[in-house]
Specification:
Layout (H helix, E strand, L loop, with lengths): L2 E2 L9 H4 L13 E6 L14 H12 L3 E6 L6 H11 L4 E5 L5 H14 L4 E5 L1 H5 L1 H8 L4 E3 L4 H13 L9 E5 L2 E4 L22 H6 L16 E4 L2 E2 L17 E2 L2 H14 L4 E4 L8 H11 L5 E6 L6 H9 L2 E6 L6 H6 L6 H14 L2 E3 L1 E4 L6 H13 L6 E4 L7 H8 L6 H6 L12 H14 L10
Parallel strand pairs: 2-3, 2-4, 4-5, 5-6, 9-12, 12-13, 13-14, 14-15, 16-17
Antiparallel strand pairs: 1-3, 6-7, 7-8, 10-11
Helix pairs in contact: 2-7, 3-4, 10-11, 11-13
Length: 466
Amino acid sequence: MVSLNNTGIENITPEFLSMIKPPDADGRKLNYLMVMPASAPDDDTQYGFPVGLASVTSALKASGRTVYTLNLNYKPDPSGLLKSAVLGSDIDVVLTGGFSVQYWELKQTVDAAKEAKANVTTVVGGGIITADPVTAMEALETADYGVIGEGEITVNALAYALETESGAAEIDGIICRKDGEWSIREQHQSIPDINILPFPDYEGFEYRLLLEKPSTYLYPLNWSPTSHIAFINTSRSCYYNCTFCFHTCGSKYRSMSLDTIFRLLDWMISLYPIEAIFTEDELSFSDPQFAIEFCRRIKPYNMQWRANIRVNMVTKEMLLAMKESGCSWATVGIENADNRILKSMRKGTTIEQVERFLEIATEIGLGFRSNLIFGDLEETMETVENSITWLKAHREAVAMIDLIHPYPGTYLYKTACERGIIKDPVQYLKDRCPAVNVSKMTEDEYNLLPDLLRSLMLPEKKLQAG
């Protein structure tokens, strides 16, 4: 339900407070409502907890403003609940955010807020805005402001502008209408030290509800379906810029220190009956020695955990440490089994490195989860056949097979728009970003892929698991 709990926000540092704008004593007193949108209708067992949205919420609460929170998941009639919250708590500003594929959930959220109170200010952030600001705002229609990039600093600057009725359009990281045109300010520079940020507002978004539900995240594992998982982010961004990937938090990789990671974990354990740990990072470990030290420190917790790693940034010592410290599985992106395509993808890996990883992981019994995606710019039927041949020889290595989707913000998306393959970016967003042919295959060849890939899908029980 609606929560007004500005206490309990952890890790409010002087360094962070020095970077934000607190409320002005002479400004308007506004009530803010941070809304976690409901998951898609076909996902009624569990949603992916949006740690980024919870982090921005903590940042706004840390400023001392009046901030309500509302999690629309597991609730009947989420739109009706949101409308009641806006009116019942006399909300002035409704904020939400998410990725491009969540377009419809986000649109329903801002539309419901406006239906409840026509003059409420609506703000949307996250990957959907950062990836293609104008397209997203035009598609959303009823969003007044968009937050581009990391939101912790920007959201407080926007709040200050709204409270003092000063120029919100002049804030770095804001897109809005000004004189009938879109005004876009470059995003606020990346926060250099993420150790100074408040910990995410799990409590405000009823994290306990998530723990009470059977976890669809555990289906490939031999874990109990009722495992209580701590979903945490320990880093932001990635060193690489694959053509199919988009970094919502900018291109500069930053990691929490080990001390901060374990203070966050200890804090979560003090709040919830945590049984497992999932790091939801783009790249959990960028350095083998950092990973080994993480393993040394997490081993006494006697918990299963998961991390996202790259095959070109591991050593046998690191993987063995992961296995021995409780890592039940590691997520690795194989992406393709033809080196020409990996090079075109700007993946920074080779199939030989993949095979070396698979050999070590299998030898030591480390579970892993990986994928193949087809349809890169340089993809041909020959490269497709090469990957299929490799897959048949390494069937236990791949859990998921799919076509490439040119998600907004990616190099593939920009190329598809430039070439006229995506003719209407707004409609493409409304269509939930489907796969389109950006490859060197003919349309007839490309149209054969969906059935071909379906025939190759492996039963989940065959997934390698430790």
